[in-house]
């Protein structure tokens, strides 16, 4: 589904990604973990070209993407993203936030876009908030709208960049619940998170990044209980699992 | 009643017919300058933040020259410069000069407002598959416009007052009219005090309208 070969990314002289080979299969839930600065968010942002890796190849659905020749908007339309700070459009209502991309990018007709948006709002449990502006929502509600907004483009995969890190602890659960449901429905997901419980329960694979390299790629049981990697063990001790 | 009030009253009563007509001209010039300035301002702001070095340079040049020279020089330059090539009334020469002048300041207002919009807004829009133009038009610019309204209002008030300078190229707007009235009634102090009141009232009305509009925006959306 999404595949990277030898991805390198630097900011000025600091090399953040040092050759990432990654293969994400359809329907898979992959959780990226690592200490801050390990490059996990950068990797995620490279996958939909919000950051551009200098060298290496990214293949989506078997098609290598040429970042100079290909229309990156089209690629991004197929791979949705959910951000740490939600990034809802404050000048648009909840419904308009969700309808925006289908209307503008896909030229969907209004009635159809609206119906889809209402269905998605129901899915994330916010049917009563359709006409509300984002400033009136709690963090957890904002993030659920953001997920609905990303789903409205019917993406082939969804990227989550620390989706619960900006939330008050009591609001984390409602967002994770929606993500869990998506995973159960077979959505391909790549998730950067510090929620180890979520990783344990929902992930198919856990990938540990350290200083720009993948140092472990394992199923949750192996990762949490049988890892032989010293850095992984240190990390797990740090996050108290 | 002190004599000064009587003289002020006399001046007011003897000038108001002409002054009210002149107010219309002042408002017309201001409106044209504001519309032109906003159009120029948006265009040059977008040029300045574009990826093209050439567009950036043109925008920088325009802004530097306009901000670096006095408005009165620009009015004179444009009036004598343009009217030597095309036939242009002094009214239009003045309005266009004011518009070009304003454009530079308004460009900076818009540039600041656009760049002040959180990077996450752009990223969210791009991540949804919108291209750069759609992102600017649908997501970034509408938010920037809201943010720009208070400084724009300020700039419009400055324009209203600056429009008095076009009296120097013979436009019979409010200040020009007052200047002539003062020359004929020999009550300079009273006449300029009265005309000052006219400007003050206009500015207060405008400030009030702007406040109403800002409140409406705040009610409509976040």
UniProtKB/TrEMBL annotation, chain A:
Domain ABC transporter: 2-236
UniProtKB keywords: ATP-binding, Nucleotide-binding, Transport
Highest rank taxon of the organism: Bacteria
InterPro entries attached to this UniProt entry: AAA+_ATPase (IPR003593), ABC_ATPase_HisP-typ (IPR030679), ABC_transporter-like_ATP-bd (IPR003439), ABC_transporter-like_CS (IPR017871), MetN_ABC_transporter-like (IPR050086), P-loop_NTPase (IPR027417)
CDD domains (UniProt xref): ABC_HisP_GlnQ (cd03262)
Annotated Gene3D superfamilies: P-loop containing nucleotide triphosphate hydrolases (3.40.50.300)
GO molecular function: ATP binding
SUPFAM superfamilies, sorted: P-loop containing nucleoside triphosphate hydrolases (SSF52540)
Name of the molecule in the record: Amino acid ABC transporter ATP-binding protein
Provenance organism: Sporosarcina quadrami
Lineage of the species this protein comes from: Bacteria, Bacillati, Bacillota, Bacilli, Bacillales
